[in-house]
Design brief:
Shape: globular
Order of helices and strands: EHHEEEEEEHH
Largest sheet: 7 strands, antiparallel
Helix content: 25-40%
Structural class: alpha+beta
Strand order of the largest sheet: 1-7-6-5-4-3-2
Distance between the termini: 24 Å
CATH class: Alpha Beta
Oligomer: single chain
Length: 165
């Protein structure tokens, strides 16, 4: 990878599950569809492999490459948004999940890193969305249910993306 990525958003959550179950929840199409607004992850399980987050209708929402694949401890992928179309203007970012033992739980750290100075208005989407995604994952693993979280992208984010050249 040639770009240098700087962490801009970091979330840590503790989940009463095993490392393997959290890994499966992050890398399995069936699991991600349950907590990631019906989007299914597709990962070619190797460094340099393809990464896709697919919408329920089959369109590609996000695509990228696997940067690090170390089950069940670390997954790092580039993330280029393909849909909605306006979001294609954004440079790719790097999303990293680190899973570590924490007593009877695991600590899941999600980091979103960028290669450019991202305006706060654009970061607001991830700052709103990632906690909902990670809460859904945690609830699914601990209770078997995902809370219905209604979300829309923040308007300031959409307007900032439309202003990009």
């Amino acid at each position: 990878m040639t770009a240098t990525f700087t962490p801009k958003t970091v979330y840590v959550t503790y989940i009463a599950a095993t490392l393997e179950k959290v890994w499966q929840a992050l890398t399995s199409t069936e699991f991600t569809r349950k907590y990631f607004w019906e989007r299914g992850v597709e990962i070619e399980p190797k460094r340099g492999g393809a990464f896709v987050l697919r919408l329920p209708d089959g369109r590609v929402n996000v695509q990228g490459k696997v940067v690090e694949y170390d089950p069940p401890r670390k997954l790092s992928v580039t993330w280029h948004v393909e849909w909605p179309e306006d979001f294609r203007k954004l440079p790719e970012c790097l999303v990293t999940y680190e899973i570590a033992p924490a007593g009877e739980a695991v600590r899941l750290t999600m980091t979103e890193s960028h290669s450019w100075e991202v305006p706060d208005a654009i970061l607001s989407g991830g700052k709103l969305g990632w906690p909902a995604v990670l809460s859904g994952l945690k609830s699914l693993l601990e209770t078997g249910k995902v809370p219905a979280i209604a979300m829309e992208p923040p308007q300031e984010m959409i307007q900032a993306i439309r202003r990009l050249k």
